[in-house]
Amino acid sequence: MIPATRDAPRPPLALVAAVFFLQAAWNYPRMQALGFAACMAAVTRRVGEEGRDLSRSLRRHLGVFNTNPVLASWVIGAAARMEEERALRGRPTEAEIGRFKEALAVHLARLGDALVWSAIRPLAAAVGVLVALAGGSYAAAVVYWVSYNAVQVTLRIQGLGAGYREGLAVTERLPGRGWALATERVRDVGSVAAGAALGLAAAGGLAGGGALSLAAAVAAAGMAMVAVERRRAGATGIALAAVAVAAFLAAVGR
Fold first, then answer.
1. 194-250: pLDDT as tens digits
2. Strand, coil or helix: 208
3. What is the three-class DSSP state of 250?
4. Which residues pair with 27 in a beta bridge?
5. Contact, 61 vs 107, CB < 8 A?
6. pTM of the prediction?
7. How many CA atoms lie within 13 A of 230 on its CB side?
8. Residue 65, SS3?
9. DSSP states of 3-57
10. 154-185 pLDDT per residue, tens
11. Secondary structure letter of residue 174 according to DSSP
């Protein structure tokens, strides 16, 4: 039996591996619950729980659980540490762990969806498209896969480590305004990359004289202007407009 103390702040390797399979058994009734329970099994066995005790501990984690799968590691790491503390010292209680898990999952779902699905992944996709338009079809897939996974794997491991080290106190280290600003900056860069890709595609098509390409160029300029008008992107909208106009003029001048 391994005590959960500050002398052993690193999560067990079995827990690290389980984090990446959180959604392997995703289902509509309970969503990520089976994956979460599998993660908890990695630590409950570690502190010697078995038989009925192990079964009872895992059943507590089979209720509905759903959050952003990348930032879920914060919840998993903290809950794992709290489960070890509960098994060894009797605190925190099962009810406290359940309330903590639910509250943190809601917060990280909102934060993670904005950061990962609306910022990081679109940016990686836009960069991949730019590489493809430059003539690197296979390289584009590699660039997208490596760039996105390098970020999301790092986020998972860092979140798991932070949650496991801090336990309940991890709430004091949760991503705050700095992450919100970072999300906005990543979105800005992704918008510029997407605009550049669209402009490049339109320019290439216009050189061939296709009517469809002209429509694409108009759409690019229109999207940029909408972004500027609504002020949803600020400088990004202006940059998109510049990219679209530059691409159009370059193509017409050929």
1. 767 766 666 665 555 455 555 555 555 556 545 554 455 455 555 555 555 555 555
2. coil
3. helix
4. 31
5. no
6. 0.77
7. 9
8. strand
9. ---TT--SPPHHHHHHHTTTTTT-BTTTBTHHHHHHHHHHHHTTTT--HHHHHHH
10. 999 999 999 999 988 888 877 666 788 888 88
11. S
